[in-house]
Amino acid sequence: MSKINILNYTKEELGSIIKPSFRAKQLYEWIYKKYVNSFDDMKNIPKDLREILKENYYLCPLKISTIEQSSDGSIKYLFALNDGKTIESVLLPMKKEEVADDGKLIHHTRYTICISSQVGCKIGCSFCLTGKSGFLRNLTSGEITSQVLMIKKDNNIAENRRVNIVFMGMGEPLDNLDNVQKAVKIFSDPFGLSISPRRQTISTSGLSAQIKKLGNMNLGVLLAISLHAVDDKLREQLMPINKAYNIESIIDAVKEFPVDARKRVMFEYLVIKNLNDDIKSAKKLVKLLHGIKAKVNLIFFNPHDGSNYQRPEIKDVLAFQDYLLKHGVLCTIRESKGLDISAACGQLKDRQEKK
Ligand code: SF4
C-alpha cells in the first residue's frame, strides 16, 4: 500500500483516524509549529504509534528544486512534487515602520506567501505563461499547505509570526475548490499554522458559479477578482474564460459574496499599454463597481518572452488611479516584485524546463 501525505488531513479528520483523538492536536503542533521533518522527532507520541505513522504516512510532499532571490527581497521557489511535476510559490517580505507609544520607530517585516493551487491551469489567460503551458492536475490540500510550511521553515519564520496567504500562484483556485477549501481550514487551525481566514485571499479569474459556491461556504476568506478589462470584448481577448463567465455575471456574484465589515473585495487590474490604460476604461470601471465595497489594485504588466503586450507608462497608470480615487474608488498601485528574477507566474518553471 502506498503511503499517504499526512498534511492532507484536517485536525478533525486526523482525530477520527488516529486514536486517542488528542494525538491529532499533538501531531499538528509537531508538524506546523515545531516544524519537524520526521515522525521520530515527535517525542510525546508513543513509539508504537510513531511506527504505525511511519508505515502509513509521509510528512513532506515537496522538495525545493530552485530558489531565486530578488534584490527587492522577494524569494521565488520552484517546488518539485512527488510525481516530478513542479509548481511555483513566492515569499514577499514587506518592510514596515511604525511609531510605538513611546515615540520610538519600530521596524518589522510582514510576510505574504503567494501559493499555487494547480499544476498548470485550464483558464488560458493570454498574458500568462502558466496558462500557455496547459493544465496537468489539481494540487492536493497537503501540497497546497506544504508550500507555506516549507517557506516558513526555509526562512526561519517563527511559528507565531503572522503571514498572509494569497492564492495567486499557478492555477485557478476555484477550479480546485474542494482542496482549496480544505487547505483554508488547515491553515486556520489554531493548533497548526493559525492563519486566520481574514489573512487568506482567494484570487479568481471570475468563475461566477464557483464564487457563489465559495460565498455559501462562509469560510471568511477574502476575495480577489482578476478583472483586467471593463468590456467583454477585450476581456475575452485577455481571458477566454470570459466567454463562459462574462463581466456582468462576475459583478452579480461578487454582490452576493459575504464581505467582512472591515474588508473589501479586491479587483486586480493588470494595466497593459494602449489596451486598458485610458481614462475611458477608468470611467467604465467606476460605473461597474458602483455599490460594491471594492478596492482596485493596478498592476503594471510585466513583459516576458513570447508576450506581445507592453508595460504601461507610469503617467497613464497614475492618471488612471487618480480618476478612480477622485470618484470614490479605493485604488492602489502594485509594482511587480522580483523584476530582476522570474517575476511573472510560470516564468521560473518555464526557464527551468527549457534548460
Ligand atoms: S492568470 Fe491565473 S487563471 Fe489565468 S491562466 Fe494564469 S494561472 Fe490561470
Helix-strand blueprint:
Blueprint: E1 4-5, H1 11-17, H2 22-33, H3 47-56, E2 57-58, E3 62-69, E4 75-81, E5 86-99, E6 105-114, E7 118-120, H4 129-132, E8 135-138, H5 141-154, E9 163-167, H6 177-188, E10 200-204, H7 208-217, E11 222-226, H8 232-238, H9 247-256, E12 265-271, H10 279-288, E13 294-300, H11 314-326, E14 330-334, H12 347-354
Parallel strand pairs: 1-2, 6-9, 9-10, 10-11, 11-12, 12-13, 13-14
Antiparallel strand pairs: 3-4, 4-5, 5-6, 7-8
Helix pairs in contact: 1-2, 5-6, 7-9, 10-11
Largest sheet: 10 strands, mixed
The amount of helix comes to: 25-40%
Number of helices: 12
Provide the succession of SSEs.
EHHHEEEEEEHEHEHEHEHHEHEHEH
Content of β-strand: 15-25%
Low-pLDDT segments:
none
- What's the Cα radius of gyration? 21 Å
Shape field: globular
Count of DSSP strands: 14
Bound molecules: iron/sulfur cluster
Mean pLDDT: 92
Descriptive account of the structure:
This protein is of the alpha/beta class and 355 residues long. Helices cover 33% and strands 24% of the residues. The protein has a ten-stranded mixed sheet with strand order 3-4-5-6-9-10-11-12-13-14, with helices on both faces. Strand 9, helix 6 and strand 10 form a beta-alpha-beta unit. Iron/sulfur cluster binds next to helix 4.
Q: Summed up, what is this model?
A:
With 355 residues, the chain is of the alpha/beta class.
Summary tags:
14 strands; binds iron/sulfur cluster; ten-stranded mixed beta sheet; alpha/beta; 355 residues; globular; two-stranded parallel sheet
